[in-house]
Design brief:
With 348 residues, the protein is α/β, with parallel strands linked by helices. It folds into two domains: 118 residues, translation initiation factor eif-2b, domain 1 (Four Helix Bundle (Hemerythrin (Met), subunit A)); 216 residues, Translation initiation factor eif-2b, domain 2 (Rossmann fold, 3-Layer(aba) Sandwich), CATH 3.40.50. Helices cover 42% and strands 18% of the residues. It has twelve helices and 16 strands. The strands form four sheets. It has a seven-stranded mixed sheet, sandwiched between helices. A four-stranded mixed sheet has the order 11-8-9-14, with helices on one face. A three-stranded antiparallel sheet has the order 1-2-3, with helices on one face. The protein is globular. The termini are far apart. The model has no long low-confidence stretch (mean pLDDT 95). The structure holds 5-S-methyl-1-O-phosphono-5-thio-D-ribulose. 5-S-methyl-1-O-phosphono-5-thio-D-ribulose binds next to helix 2, helix 6 and strand 9.
């Protein structure tokens, strides 16, 4: 299996997104023509993963000005607030859309903003591979300090690869880089209930890369770590705040607590756009609550009693005290503290 996945393409002013809800069984591309289509694609998780929803947000704002060349700045700002509300936890969406608003402030005519936003979106995506590779190289150095060059057993949660970033990936990009260096023995991919980003998407990407891996249920984490089957854990981030507390896919926090109990290094790998230094602790992060039917049904078929209800928090907050290090394109934050976070994030 070798064909490269392209989760987002833009050609002749038409944005196409691979429908991630259907992977890995079907590879279907959906056309996105308006800001409303973009909102729905993000909210319904046709497109997902913090960095990729951020880039999709830029295209969404470009589509807004394309269809509203005479819009006022206030209308542009309202459209930006609307698109940002599609998913609240991943700060990348707000980060990228806020930058579009800053660009709009400098333009007198909306029509001149369209080519600027398109060029901006393309250049952001083009720069990403280098950024992700530099995170992976920092991670490699961290592991080398602990384990030398021996091939390792690694664990990850959710999907943080090409399908979440557009290129390489963050935590999964690190695993792919380490595998290219012959430093990976086995990867345990947490299935990631209820949307199954691990079993549907991460496993698919690992298969395409030819990396040995096993899908495990979330509840197997303690078994794996107690039995010394995991040397290190890499997870992504949807929002990292000033003290290092990190929101990521629900289940990440319990992985980190178990890892701390068994003395296993636990790393967050994420770009600068995932940091929100306006918040001082993780308690201030809004956690997205999704439709209970994502838990109660599978592909539209009930898997619980018709009268059963469910609570579906899509993310949780990993306490900074359970994180060995946060790795971004500027370097490694270890141990996490407000001073250390600011020093790396604000590094020029
Ligand atoms: O709900 P999702 O699939 O968008 O959640 C994705 C995650 O939690 C990822 O770990 C995170 O966005 C980082 S992606 C590089």
């Amino acid at each position: 299996m070798t064909t490269t996945l392209l989760p987002l393409t833009y050609d002749q002013e038409i944005l196409k997104l691979i429908d991630q809800r259907l992977l890995p069984t079907e590879e279907v591309y959906l056309t996105v023509r308006t800001i409303e289509d973009t909102y729905r694609a993000i909210q319904d998780m046709i497109v997902r993963g913090a960095p990729l929803i951020g880039f999709t947000g830029i295209w969404g704002m470009a589509l807004f000005v394309k269809h509203n060349p005479k819009a006022t700045f206030e209308q542009f700002e309202r459209a930006a607030a609307y698109l940002k509300s599609a998913r609240p936890t991943a700060v990348n969406l707000a980060f990228e859309i806020d930058r579009c608003v800053e660009m709009a402030k400098l333009e007198t005519h909306m029509s001149s903003l369209y080519p600027m936003l398109v060029a901006h979106a393309k250049s952001e995506m083009n720069n990403l591979y280098e950024k992700n590779l530099s995170m992976a190289k920092f991670a490699e150095i961290e592991l080398q300090k602990i384990y030398g060059d021996r091939p390792l057993n690694l664990m990850t949660i959710c999907n943080t690869g090409v399908l979440a970033c557009g290129v390489l990936g963050t935590a999964l990009g690190t695993i792919i880089h380490l595998n290219n260096k012959k430093k990976v023995k086995m990867v345990y991919a947490s299935e990631t209930r209820p949307y199954l980003q691990g079993s549907r998407l991460t496993s698919f990407e690992l298969l395409k890369e030819g990396i040995d891996h096993k899908i495990v249920v979330e509840g197997a984490a303690s078994y794996l770590m107690k039995n010394k089957l995991v040397d290190a854990i890499f997870a992504g981030a949807d929002r990292i705040v000033e003290n290092g507390d990190t929101a990521n896919k629900v289940g990440t926090s319990s992985l980190s607590i178990i890892a701390k109990h068994y003395g296993i290094p636990f790393y967050i790998v994420a770009p600068i756009s995932s940091f929100d230094l306006q918040l001082s602790t993780g308690d201030q992060i809004e956690i997205e609550l999704r439709d209970p039917n994502e838990i109660l049904q599978y592909k539209g078929v009930s898997i619980a009693h018709a009268e059963a209800n469910a609570l579906n928090p899509s993310f949780d907050v990993t306490d900074h005290s359970c994180i060995t290090g946060i790795i971004c394109e500027n370097g490694v934050i270890v141990p996490t503290s407000p001073k250390a976070v600011r020093a790396i994030v604000e590094k020029i």
